[in-house]
Structure formats: structure tokens, C-alpha cells
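QUALITY CONTROL LOG
STEP: pairwise intake check
CHECKER ROLE: data steward
CRITERIA: each record must contain a sequence immediately followed by its C-alpha cells, with no blank fields

ENTRY 1 OF 2
RESULT FIELD BELOW
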Amino acid sequence: MITMLDRWQFAVTTVYHFLFVPVSIGLALLVAVMQTLAYRRKDEEWDALARFFGKLFVINFALGIATGIVQEFQFGMNWSNYSVFVGNIFGAPLAIEGLLAFFMESTFLGLWLFGRGRLSARLHLATIWLVSIGTILSALFILAANAWMQHPVGYKVVGNRAELTDFWALLANSTLWAEFSHTFLAAITTGGMVVLGVSAWKLLRRHETAAFARAARLAAAVSLVAVIGVMVTGDLQARLMDEQQPMKMAAAEALYDTQSGASFSILTVGNLSGNPIFQVRVPHLLSLIADMSWNGSVSGIHQIQAHEAATYGPASYVPVIWLSYWSFRLMIGFGVVILAVAIWALVLARRKRLDRSRWFLWASLLAIGAPFLANTFGWIFTEAGRQPWVVNGLMRTDQAISPTVGAGSVALTLAGFTVLYTVLGVIEVMLMSRYARHPLHEDEADSSGSASTPALVY
């Protein structure tokens, strides 16, 4: 009971926090691109767009920091055994993330916000690029820790703790680079779809159509390239998963027995463990995903369970099958939605009808949610599919919790966090909606010629 409550609490706070992370990474990069276009072309419209979407980035960045801090306290309070076990491993990447990447983001964000009119145009442009680089480095070092949980490398176990023996092995972890590239491109996709959706809303209201049509074209092109990259890196991750975490691969497909030339289930209606009501399957596709072989062998749940029980001792090593199966498909499904909307946008842009197709504009506005849902289901699959391991092959989740924290305390804080984060979510949506309604050139109208005033309106 206590393990399940701890897992629920961490899941609620992590899923909520990760709603902000990809937007911060994606919007920071897109704002930097817009400001670069403004600088190189001496284009006031791109400059206004950079400042407009910069406001949305800052709101998201601030709330992301607030929600991220809670997770660090949870490690020490609810997961003390886990913290002791991984502390020596996680110390280096998380310290670098906090002392280098996070302070880099914060420092240069301050310079970008308050440096307009005080710094030269070139130096001011450099600050937003350094903010963007900082967000990317933060993701890299945090994912170094997560990748070690998926595929431990460069360590030895001494007593009840893992000790880092090779920092460079930690950074060279194959799982890290597959995970980082996938997450980074998903974040760029998220930022692109937010810019596209907000631009679509402006175009529906016929506000500054020339400028927001520009932003929509840029966002659609970025989203298309990024989501294709997400699919390519996801394929790489699947092959690593089959090698490093075969149970997760089997659970994603609900494949109970080892098969050669295994088919991939697009959709299953009914019982996943046998006798479904209806299925749509693609022959041999799972074998192609797993090892690029038409008739490759893919291990089944029963065989992997027997092997892990023999290796680690009697226990169930099977995750929740329906959760793994459906989160994997929902992640892919929302990715396909993004791909379709981005292609639609570029086709309309080529025909010079992007700002006039109301069907497309409404679809783009609704599709803002697609990357958030794809990201969420992707992380649910990544983390829930690893169960019962918190560190794959080294520590089970039930061994990681704090022995002195009672179920009542966890249940109370779980309820509190759920209420608090719901309130923060409403505030986030209200703030983003409020600032998205502002006129594009509001900054110039309010500045009244003052060199310092524009810096305060981000």
C-alpha cells in the first residue's frame, strides 16, 4: 500500500512538472530563432514575435521551477533507501545541472529580460541563445541520471549503495543519447506546436495576420522536422529497449510468448492476454522494430519472467500490461496527429492559404494538446514499463521507499499536491491565455520611448 501511494505521489508531481519542461526547451529555441531572424534581417516583425512568445516562455519557465523543486524533496523524504543507493551516482550529473545549467539559464534569462536597450543587439541576442543552451544542458544531465536507472553503467555496488567508477561511462551511456535525442526533439515539437496553435488562434481572430502567418509557417516547419526526428530516435530507442529491457518491449506489445517474425498490434479490442474481440496487426513489424530483421525473434513475457525469476529470485517481474500497451500506442497516436497537422500546415502555406483555412486553424488550436499528451504517455510507458525495478536489475521499487514514512502522511501529501497542482495548472492556463491575447506590438505602445520600459514587459 505504502509503495503504491509513494509511486502515485511521485507520478502526479513528475507528470505535472514535465508538462513545463518541453515547452521551456522548445519555446526558448524558437524565441532564439525568431530573434536571430530579427537581428539578421533588421526585421521589427520578427522582433515583436520573439518578445510575444518570450512572455509565454517566461511564464512557463517560472512555474516549471516551482514544480521541479518538490521532486527533490520527495527523493529524501519518500524514497530515502533509493537516495542512499543512487546518491553517489546521481551526485555528479545533478550537481552539474544545478550549478552550471540551471544558473546559466537563470542568469542569462535575467540579462535577456532586462538587457533590452542596455546591451548591444548582438549581445542581447547571445543571451537568449545561452538560455536555450542552458535548458538543453539541464535536460541532458537530468536524463543522464534517468538513463542510468534504465541501463546502469560505470558503477560498482558497495554494501547498500552504488558507487560511480567511471563518470565518462555515465555520459557515454547508449541509453542516455537515445533518450536525450528523443526527448530534445519531442521538446522542439512541443514548442513548435504551441507557437503554431497560438498563431492559429490569432489568425482566427484576424489579429496581425501577416506576422502570425509567419510564425505559423516557421512553427509548422520546425514541428515537422522535429516530429520526424522523434520517430527516428524512437525507433532507435525501441531496439535498445529490446536489448536492455526486453520485458518492457514485450509488455508494450502484450506479447506473452516468444515469436519469430512477430507482428505489431496497431489496435486491440478486448482481452490483451488472449482471445481479443478485434485486432489490427502489421505482420513482422515488431521483429523489424526490435532488431531490423524480418523473422527476428522477440522474447515473450512468460519466457522473460522465468529468466528474471531465475536470475534475481522468485517474484513477479511483469509490469502492468494494459498500461504499457496503451501508453505506448497513445504516445505514437498523438505523434501521428502532430505529423498530420504539420504537413497540412506546410501544404496550405505553399498554396498561400494557411491563414484562411478555418478548418486548419481550429485543428491547429486543438492540436496544442497533442505533444503534451504524447510526452506524458511516453514517460508513463518509460517509467511504468520498467517496473518492478526502480533501477533496472539492481533495486526494486518496493526496496526504495523510506521505511519511516507512513501511508497516512503520503496519502495526505498526495491529496495536497493534487489540489495545489490543479490550482497551479489553472493559473498557468489563465496566464498563458491572458498574455496570448495581448497585441503583438503592445510593448512599443507602452514604452513611450523609454529605453528601460520594454525590458519590464516580458
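ENTRY 2 OF 2
RESULT FIELD BELOW
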Amino acid sequence: MNKKMRFLAVPALAISAVALVGSPAMAADASYSSTLGQLNGTTGTGTITVDVVGDQAMVNLQVSGLAQTFMDAPYPHVQHIHGGSKGVCPTPANDANGDGIVNVAEGAPGYGDIQTTLTTSGATTPAEGLNLALGGQGGTYSIQRTITLDAATQKSLEDGVAVVVVHGLDPATAGVPAEVFNSPSELNPDLPLGATSPALCGTLVKTQMGAMPSGGADTGVATESTSSTGMMALGGGLVLAAAAGGTFAVRRRVAQNA
């Protein structure tokens, strides 16, 4: 199989906490949290809390131990709040095509479409779902910011079916041959399958303010899988946003059949 490397320069984005400036401290209307479970051989860990006041949510996502680099550059991990479905994470039983990776198309019937993209800055709409420049960079990172929740995300939280998914597998731990990991993603053929597949997943559970649930993430087995649902779930193409600051190189690998 011949492979052609393409280099893209995209801005390096700092991850910082964003506060509601000038507003008095307010108790959350509701708080949600999850300890994220591991998928597809990942050895990483993650926790998230979402404290909601009206349509504003203070998000605190902490991730560690994921893949550090992607083609000699910081690995860009995208993550989202999915909803509107069963509110469960996939298991190995959802690997419908038997290639060894549960991809987005196979997991989406359980956790639903993207409703909010958990970006490091800027927009949080589903259109940013594959915006690598706004993803977490490297194997350990945090996202701490206040965002606006749309009505669909709020309903999924209230109904107990909001699921957080962090994408981007480590080829060293995924347990599949390189030709499978580097095969074209079903979401964007310019990206490897392993780079867009889910690595961590957890259902957001209503909790006391600031509390984390004990035990692992809620999981379940999706029973129906369609490629169209999967495409809607991660959605959108690769978007590269301009921003001030340094740049880093991201190499995109396009796999070509021999």
C-alpha cells in the first residue's frame, strides 16, 4: 500500500480557563459528571464535570494517558457531548465489521449525534466536530471553560442520555494491524480510521455540585448501526481555524490502495 504524506500548518492553541467575568458566584441549577471508560485499547483516563446555570455550562474535562503524537506532531483529540439516543457507550460487541476497531458509525446508535463540541476555545457547534485545531493537544490536557448549551444538549442532560466521547486512538495500544489503523476514516478519508475512532466514553450523570460518580462509565450495547447515523454523529469535514500564536505541523496521511 502506497502512502502519501501531506503537511498542514495549523495554529497552536493554548488551553485556558474561562470564567463568567463580573457575575456573582451562583449555585448550579444542575451538575453532571462522568468517569470516562476506555475503548479500542486505549490506556488513557478522563473525568468531566458540567455545572449548568440556565443555558450556561462550566465544563471541566481532564484527560491523561492518551496518544501523545500524531505523525511527529501533538496528537489532536476531538471530543463532544452526544445525545438524543440511548445514552450508552459502545462495547467490543458493536464492532459490526470485525476489523478490531469500534468506529463512530458503529458506536453512534448508542450515544447519538454530536450536540456540543467540547473545543478548547471558540465555537462549540456540531460543525466543529472534526476541527483538529480546536481539539485537545497531546496525551494529557484539560478543557476548562464556560460554554452556551443549546436546547437539544440541555434536554439530553436532563433525560440522562448525554454522552461524552473523546476520539483518537494510540496505534501502539489499539491492537490492530497498521493497515487497519491507517485505513481511511469513514468520516473523512483524509484521516486515518484510528484518529477519528472513540478512545474514551462516559454517560453524564446528575450529581451533587462538584461531585464525581464512583465507579466507571455507563455502557451498553447498541443494537442497530447505520453508516448515515455514524456520519451525522461526528459530522463535518476537517476545519482548520486561524488564531494568534505559534504553529505546529499536523501531517495528514491519505491511504491509497495498491
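INTAKE CHECK: passed for both entries
DESCRIPTIVE NOTE, ENTRY 2: The longest strand covers residues 3-11.
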